[in-house]
Specification:
heterodimer, A: about 425 residues, mainly beta, 5-stranded antiparallel β-sheet, about 40% strand, globular, disordered N terminus, B: about 700 residues, Maltoporin, Chain A, 2 domains, 22-stranded antiparallel beta barrel, 5-stranded mixed β-sheet
């Protein structure tokens, strides 16, 4: 079908930049072709936004696609960055509102416009400013905002769209060629609704044919109630009764206000919870055994008097022995922590000297390197830092960004399988 | 606690849009320049012809309605700033919106949301709406809760004149800020009788009826004016379904849930005790019920925002003290405004919301005006208190209460030299303020206190009867609002460390007017000025990774520009008006993504031109309004359209007092969205019938 290119005040300049960027991607692809076979993606979920059934992704050159937002949230855009140092960035792609996120699968990335925009667009990573399709995730005549938060893929023709502003998730066909073909089903999670009539589904992951949907369950005054994970059989799209809760089919979590769910690839899911906004320290990191659905509080964020790391506002699981957390002490006063997901022990010190900064997001590429988003801070630009989790050292130079990074995902740019 | 700011106007929080760049922008400026060059050259060429034997008709305005000056009013003949006035004939013809009239002035820009009754805010010389002070009969409408004044809350039916002061603000208007001021003057009760009735009807179910009567008996005079208006605002728009890259799902449909209805009443009474003593009383009531459409134009939307305000004030004028050299005016006022935002179905914002906001303001002022020989001095003292109370009617959040006390003292001394042709006016503004904030279920009170003194200097030189040169320089401020200082509950945090934005305004320019007899030209009036303003410690709200927002003094800006207003009268009563503004409102924030960019929401170029001609007993007015270079966002990734709005008006006023006006607005049916997602109506017609006696 159609697609209009994104607007640009200087089309010739944009074309030139894009051409140069694509050329650099091509050169990089050629340079990396020998190592592609070893370049597997661990796919630990990334909030369900680049997950592929918890299995390794077929290898090829990948790029980092970043959803970014202006420091004052008046606009947002996307950036595409090569994943080999020196990292080359093409920025300000598909400019739009600031409340955005991004997901990816295969060679494509998917822009998700959230509150009051309610749309998803598919873009090929090698042509990063050309929209293949864009569809609304509101039904005709459906009021309010769907506020889509995540898109989790089964395969090229099936994915789940988690709609934070509605009690019903959508099942969609990412290969659809028309809006009519896009929505192929629904999953009703209204049973988990609070007095806001919403379960506040925010992220998810597919592991062993099951979709785990994280639900924050905020009430009308945005106080977090007991959070749950609904488990969906992706073959039948029906909810599984986990038998762990008297009230619901899903899994009751020991942390409140969760936002990230990831896997270590070894049968354990990790859930990061923030706790109350006020703050009340009811967050931390919880584990879910994917065989028994048993939960455990792995990392406690403390209490009113003792909370050495603050609240936790982000997490990245690298492996069963290595993970990272964003400790949140207040407005732009965050720090990056390393911890052991096996024991829950947080290492001493702050990673990459990131203390008292605006750490925004954590993601992992297929080389198991951690991409750390750092927002603008006083006169310093926003940036992405790439860390080697083996020793927390920084790989290459920081990638300077015009806007603050919100989410990073890693589609491939060349399908050579 | 709420995780996002839920302001009284949450539907305006999304001020960004995706928009293709119009190819028109690049060709816009050269056309302007050609027109201006020709007009300016022609004016220069004709200047020597009759310059010396023509009497001066001042461009200055006398700032009380209908040309009557009373102590405490602005007498712009005595000011050095650049100003313009919109008189009652234009206001009565417009009937529906004062914002669209102000938007036609040089250096002024008004952004409106939706159709009749929609939110409307002003920018002057590139300064933001919260950096422009708006007054109603000299009483400040801006309040401590921050943001700009919504011009849609001023009823044109009660308005006799609008004075726009760009940059420098007269002493009689108590408070000044970085952009300038607008003084909206209601009808003045005078010592003669008249009455006027008018009715307007038009597209989108729009109507308005108004009536005014005034009279005098002995030493008493009075005025009453009432009006009612409304609109379904069901104009057509193109809904892109939130998918700006997919035109296949666009649909043309009527605007949903945008109806508005309003009523207002103005009552004035005065008693002239003697030639030197007068007592005035005023009561003003305004009520507006407004539906709030959703971003995606949902037909199920039911959100509303209602406003009710009333104001009472009194003024005692006592002139000619100290052997006739001292005039005084004492004024007190009280205003009460209640706003109710109802989005219980959670259609507009992030959460269900039903809030009530009450703002009460009262104060007293004393103005002293002294004149002796070539010297004049003015002193204005004011004490003012504002109270703001927010109540969550759903009970989710505790009430919060803010209070701000202000003491202001303005002093200027004006000295005339060279037989009065040169006027030099140094002045100073002193402002003390103290703010307090309390959340009902929290311990303690947040406080903020500040004092500052700002100097200004103005110069006015009249080398000939036709030419006046002016220049002004001064320091101005914009104090942080309650939300910026103390937060808006939820995840918009307060920052009590905030200081006022401050900056230097400087301008220079000329006014020239003359009667002529050249090539069909009979008279020409020209006002042009250039300005250079800096703003430091700009208050900007930034957000962190969790979506928490907080304001801080992190930015600065430089506003440069040039404006021109020209009025040419030709034979056969042909009148050409032309107003042009070009400006560079540059963001000088340290943030690399913002540095050097155009401040959002500001035009870089604007042109208004109108041609008025008699036609078979009617008066035909054609006007065009063009603007360009505006962005929705701070990083300038989201350009606004560059609209060209053409309109036509036919009016006829019979000697018996009957009048008729036919208006056809936006002839080419352009879509204009000053606020992203909130388009204004396309082509529309209106008819107004009136009778005046």
């Amino acid at each position: 079908m159609m697609m209009r290119k994104s607007p640009s005040p200087h089309p010739w300049l944009k074309t030139l930049r894009t051409t140069a960027f694509v050329l650099s991607l091509a050169l990089l692809t050629a340079a990396c072709s020998d190592s592609d076979d070893d370049n597997s993606s661990p796919d630990n979920g990334q909030n369900g936004q680049n997950g592929q059934n918890g299995q390794s992704v077929p290898t090829s050159t990948e790029v980092a696609v970043v959803a970014t937002a202006a420091d004052d949230f008046t606009s947002g855009a996307f950036a595409v960055i090569t994943t080999e140092a020196p990292f080359t960035a093409e920025q300000n792609l598909l400019p739009t509102v600031s409340d955005i996120t991004v997901a990816s699968y295969g060679e494509h990335y998917y822009t998700i416009e959230r509150l009051n925009r309610d749309s998803i667009a598919k873009v090929k990573a090698s042509a990063p400013d050309e929209v293949i399709w864009q569809y609304s995730v509101l039904d005709d005549g459906e009021g309010g905002s769907a506020n889509p938060h995540a898109m989790i893929f089964v395969d090229e023709t099936k994915a789940y769209v988690l709609r934070y502003g509605k009690p019903v998730a959508w099942i969609v066909n990412p290969s659809a060629t028309s809006a009519a073909e896009f929505k192929i089903g629904e999953i009703d999670l209204s049973a988990y609704s609070t007095d806001r009539d919403l379960p506040s589904m925010t992220s998810g992951i597919i592991v062993d044919g099951k979709l785990y949907v994280l639900m924050q369950r905020l009430d009308a005054s945005f106080t977090p109630l007991t959070a749950y994970v609904a488990v969906i059989d992706t073959a039948t799209d029906t909810e599984i009764n986990t038998g762990t809760s008297a009230e619901f089919n899903g899994i009751e979590l020991p942390v409140e206000n969760p936002s990230v769910i990831q896997t270590d690839g070894e049968g354990t899911l990790y859930v990061q919870g923030f706790g109350h906004f006020t703050p009340v320290y009811s967050g931390g990191v919880a584990t879910i055994d994917t065989d028994t659905y048993a939960t455990e509080l792995l990392v406690d964020d403390g209490d009113d008097t003792n909370h050495p790391y603050g609240q936790f506002s982000g997490m990245q699981i690298v492996s069963a022995e290595r993970g990272y957390l964003i400790g949140y002490n207040g407005f732009r006063d965050n720090h990056l922590l390393a911890f052991n997901p096996m024991t829950g022990v947080i290492e001493d010190g702050f990673v990459a000297d990131l203390q008292g900064r605006n750490v925004t997001t954590l993601s992992m590429d297929s080389q198991q390197r951690v991409w750390v988003g750092v927002g603008a801070f006083e006169a310093e630009s926003a940036k992405l830092m790439v860390l080697n989790p083996a020793d927390n050292s920084q790989v290459g130079e920081s990638v300077l960004l015009d806007f603050n990074p919100l989410r990073v995902t890693f589609p491939r740019v060349n399908e050579e399988q | 606690m709420r995780p996002l700011s839920l302001s009284p106007l949450p539907y305006l929080e999304s001020v960004v849009r995706i928009e293709c760049v119009s190819a028109m922008r690049s060709s816009f400026l050269p056309r302007y320049r050609c027109v201006f060059l020709g007009l300016v050259l022609s004016s220069v060429l004709v200047l020597p012809a009759r310059a010396e034997d023509l009497a001066l008709q001042s461009l200055d305005v006398v700032s009380s309605a209908d040309g009557v000056h009373r102590t405490g009013d602005v007498l712009t003949e005595a000011t050095t700033g650049f100003s313009s006035s919109i008189h009652s004939d234009r206001i009565q013809q417009s009937q529906l919106s004062i914002g669209s009239l102000i938007d036609q002035e040089a250096g002024a820009q008004v952004r409106e949301s939706g159709g009749f009754g929609g939110y409307s805010e002003i920018s002057l010389r590139g300064a933001g709406s919260d950096q422009v002070m708006v007054f109603l009969d000299g009483m400040l409408l801006n309040d401590g809760s921050g943001g700009g004044v919504d011009l849609s809350l001023v009823d044109p039916a009660q308005t006799a004149r609008i004075d726009v002061y760009r940059g420098s603000t007269p002493l009689q208007l108590g408070k000044a800020s970085l952009g300038g001021a607008v003084n909206i003057l209601t009808h003045l009760d005078e010592a003669h009788s008249r009455y006027r009735v008018a009715a307007t009807a038009g597209d989108f179910g729009t109507y308005k009826v108004s009536a005014l009567a005034q009279g005098a008996r002995d030493d008493l005079d009075g005025l009453i004016s009432i009006s009612a208006a409304g609109s379904a605002n069901d104009f057509e728009l193109t809904n892109n379904n939130g998918t700006q890259h997919n035109p296949d799902d666009d649909r043309v449909e009527a605007r949903e849930n945008a109806a508005t209805a309003q009523q207002s009443a103005l009552l004035k009474a005065g008693r002239q005790f003697s030639e030197r003593r007068r007592l005035d009383g005023t009561a003003l009531f305004f009520n507006k019920a407004q539906e709030i459409p959703t971003w995606n134009n949902s037909p199920n939307a039911e959100a509303t925002f209602d406003t009710q305000s009333w104001q009472v004030r009194g003024r005692w004028i006592s002139d000619d003290h100290l052997n006739g050299t001292l005039d005084t005016a004492t004024e007190w006022y009280y205003t009460h405004r209640t706003e109710t935002y109802d989005d219980r179905n959670n259609e507009v914002g992030l959460a269900e919301q039903h809030d009530r906001y009450v703002t009460r303001t009262h104060g007293i002022s004393q103005t002293l005006q002294w004149q002796a020989g070539a010297s004049e001095a003015g002193l204005r003292l004011e004490l003012r208190e504002e109270r703001y109370h927010r109540n969550d009617k759903l009970g989710h959040d505790p009430d919060d209460r803010s209070r701000r006390q202000n003491a202001l003292a303005n002093l200027d001394v004006s000295q005339r030299f060279l037989q009065g042709r040169l006027r030099l006016t140094p002045s100073a503004r002193l402002h003390w303020r103290k703010s307090r904030y309390r959340l009902d279920d929290a311990d303690g009170t947040s406080r903020d206190e500040d004092f500052h003194a700002d100097p200004q200097l103005g110069l006015k030189y009249r080398p000939t009867a036709q030419l006046t040169l002016k220049s002004n320089v001064g320091r101005y401020r914009r104090e942080p609002g309650f939300f910026e200082l103390f937060g808006d509950r939820g995840l918009v945090l307060g920052n009590p460390e905030l200081v006022a934005e401050h900056g230097i305004n400087a301008d220079v320019g000329a006014e020239w007017q003359s009667h002529l007899e050249i090539a069909g030209l009979r008279a020409l009036r020209l006002q042009t000025s250039a300005w250079y303003n800096t703003i430091d410690d700009m208050i900007v709200r930034t957000f962190d990774a969790r979506g928490v927002g907080r304001s801080s003094n992190v930015a600065s800006a430089r506003l440069r520009g040039w404006e021109l207003a020209l009025r040419a009268t030709f034979v056969h009563d042909l009148v050409l008006n032309l107003r042009y503004t070009t400006q560079d409102p540059e963001n000088r924030s340290p943030n690399a993504a913002f540095k050097g960019k155009v401040l959002p929401g500001r035009d870089q170029r604007a042109l208004y031109a109108s041609l008025e001609a008699p036609l078979l007993g009617w008066t035909l007015l054609y006007d065009v309004h063009m603007r360009s270079g505006r962005y929705y966002d701070t990083a300038n990734l989201l350009p606004n359209d560059d609209p060209q709005i053409h309109s036509l008006r036919l009016t006829r006023q019979s000697p018996s007092g009957f009048g008729i006006s036919l208006a056809l607005n936006n002839l080419t049916d352009e879509t204009v969205e000053d606020f992203n997602g909130y388009p204004k109506p396309g082509r529309a017609w209106f008819i107004t019938l009136s009778y005046e006696h």
